[in-house]
Amino acid sequence: MKCLKLISICLLFFLTTNAQQQIIFKSKNLPQADTTWVFTPKNLKNNKKVPAIILLHGYSGNYKQWNNIMDAQKYADEYGYILIAPDGLYKSWYLNSPAKADWQYENFFFEEFLPKIKNDYPIDTANIFITGLSMGGHGALWLFLKHPDMFKSAGSTSGGINLRDAIGKFGVPELLGNPDKDSDIWLKYSVIQQIDKLAGSPKEIIFDCGADDFFYQSNNAMKKKCDSLKIKATYISQPGNHNAAYWKKSIKQQFEFFSKQVSK
Questions:
Q1: Residue 24 and residue 57: Cα distance in Å, rounded?
Q2: How many domains does the chain have?
Q3: In this model, does residue 74 exceed pLDDT 60?
Q4: Which 3 state secondary structure label does DSSP give 132?
């Protein structure tokens, strides 16, 4: 009995002092294993469901990128949210590739990743948010537009929301099957072309971009489109470039936006 009590105490100590966990997914939808970091707030109470924010990294990054920028555990503790950082496998753009059968990230996300996260962690499923930077900004809004019912809201910072900006670079041509530059497929897989799906929806989104960013003009164009469709979008245009210094500033703004959505 004493031994059992000691084991229970040790297990409780482990759970309360090791708030960061790692999950490795081996999926038929991906060409290689996907590693995910999960940060749970250290003061999480038993049986309490809390909001979750999924953080998608940028092109050439990995699941560690957001933690390197913002100190994810600090944010999890400050806001009391569970933070989840999956790996976008360098250049997945978080979509189902029409050209590569083993690059079906969207399928992986909704069929394997999200169900496991919701099952294994005390997540308030009414308050799941998703955001990301650059490639991840596109990915966050893309996945949100596919299944808005699964998220409370979504965000993007420095998002590559128009894949025409990636013609000839960032791994996009290979994912789309190396289409001609005039092909409609570039827009078919672009958030800016699909954002009209939110017209008439009560769901709110947030996106931002620095004035010196190479994706700035496309983000401005999407803001105009959101306004014309009366989509509930908060857009922040501010000084900054496509770098970690900008994302460290912008992610705080997005967390504050999401917190207001929770309170609603």
A1: 17
A2: 1
A3: yes
A4: strand
